[in-house]
Structure formats: structure tokens, C-alpha cells
Amino acid sequence: MRQRVVDALPVYLVTDDGLCAAEGRTVVDTVRAAVDGGVTCVQLRGKTLSARELLQQTLEVAAAVGDRVPVLVNDRVDVYLTAREAGAAVAGVHIGQSDLPVELTRAVIGPDAILGLSAATPQQLANITPGTVDYVGIGPVHSTATKPDAPTGRGLEWAAGIVTEAPVPAVAIGGLRAADLEALKAAGFAGAAVVSAICSATDPEAAARALAERWAAHPAPAPAPAPEPTLASALSERVS
Ligand SMILES: Cc1ncc(COP(=O)(O)OP(=O)(O)O)c(N)n1
Ligand SMILES: Cc1ncsc1CCOP(=O)(O)O
Ligand SMILES: [Mg+2]
Where's the Thiamine phosphate synthase/TenI domain (predicted)? Predict the structure, then answer.
């Protein structure tokens, strides 16, 4: 059974092997510390790893995390399926606009897996078929060195505008730090995804805790009021 996906999104860690190694840690050590600190989701983004290496890392991280938070695999649907076949507690995949098509990915991973999709334009959000994608990752909010092929950061105002068009819960991504969280939550994001804020931190547990506390400290925006009934809808209710 898929858990309520919004519970997984508030502080979403995306891993980077190089950044963790530069701090003298493995990805597994970093994830363990970050989960202890309060991250709510982990995405394994092993861009420099072979399929075999990413599978091994996925098995180790899934064993270390257990059922504390969902573990997703970036891009590699084959690695996710193989880890699942091996009995690992992996929750799903995150794919981008140039990765495998969304509908086929959903068909392959099944209805219970979590499926995340990157989106950066209103058109990409409008293209989402209801029921296929569980959440979207929107960015980059700020410019980032972590993803060299990402465009320049578009800013918090842009993020606050585009999130209103997301048909599913959204996490922001790109250069995010604790100071961004209040504005993102107020704008309606369900969470913030970070790489360097945790992977490059001297103390990843403390970094995760600071982000989790900052997110929890701010109220979620009040839900939008139900629209006033129009004359036509009031009449149709009376005749039905
Ligand atoms: C939560 C989240 N949002 C966006 C991305 C970016 O995915 P993508 O556009 O496929 O780029 P790569 O991460 O594959 O380089 C993400 N990974 N996670
Ligand atoms: C994977 C990804 N997608 C858009 S920006 C980004 C990298 C974000 O990394 P950081 O949090 O270190 O800026
Ligand atoms: Mg991708």
C-alpha cells in the first residue's frame, strides 16, 4: 500500500556520491544520519554509478533505512525493479522529462510504487495524466552546481507562481537552504528537496534536523475557500 505521499515530502534528501565522498562519508552513512535528523524521504541519485553499483547502494540504503522513510531511485527504473525483486524495501522512482515516459513507467512499476516527476513549466504540469504521478519536483529555484545541466535558478517568486498549477503535491528543488523553507511552505509546496545542504554538510544529521525544524516551525497555508456556487450549479443541485 502506498503511504500518503505528502508525508514523505517535507524534507526530501537527494543523494550525491561525490559530495558525500568529499566529506569523507559514504552515501549510506549520510542517509543514516539524515534520517536520524528527520528527513522524510531519500532519493538515490547515483549519476556516476554503474547499474550494478547503484543496485548495491540501493540494497544497502534500503536495509539501513528499513520502513522509516521511503527510498526512491532516480532515473533507473531497472535498478528499482531489480532491488525490489531482491526483496529490498524500495518505495519507487523519480524520473525527469527526458527519462522513460510517465504512463509506461507507472505501468511497469505498478500502482503501489511512488512515482515522482520533474517539471519546470506550466505545460509540463498540464501534461500530467491524473492518477499517474504522485508528486512533482519543481526547479531549479536557485542556481546550483550540483546539477551542471540545470538552467539558471528561477527564483522563489517563480516557484510560488508555478506551484499553484501543480495537479499533485510538489517539492521545490535547486540550491535550497533552511532560509527558503518558510516562503516555499507559504506558497503551497509540500516540501523541499535538497542535495548539497545535507550531503556537503559537516554534520548531516544536524543539517537535516535544522531543515526539519524549520519546515515544522511554519504553518501550512489555509486551504483555498470553496468557490461561491453559481446560479447554474445551484439550480442543477436543486433538480438532482
Ligand atoms: C525531487 C526531484 N526533483 C527534480 C529532480 C530532477 O530530475 P531530472 O530532471 O530527471 O534530473 P536528474 O536528477 O536526473 O539529473 C530530482 N532528481 N528530484
Ligand atoms: C537534482 C536537481 N534537479 C534540479 S536542481 C537539482 C540539484 C539540487 O542540488 P542542490 O540542493 O545541491 O542545489
Ligand atoms: Mg532524471
Answer: 11-198
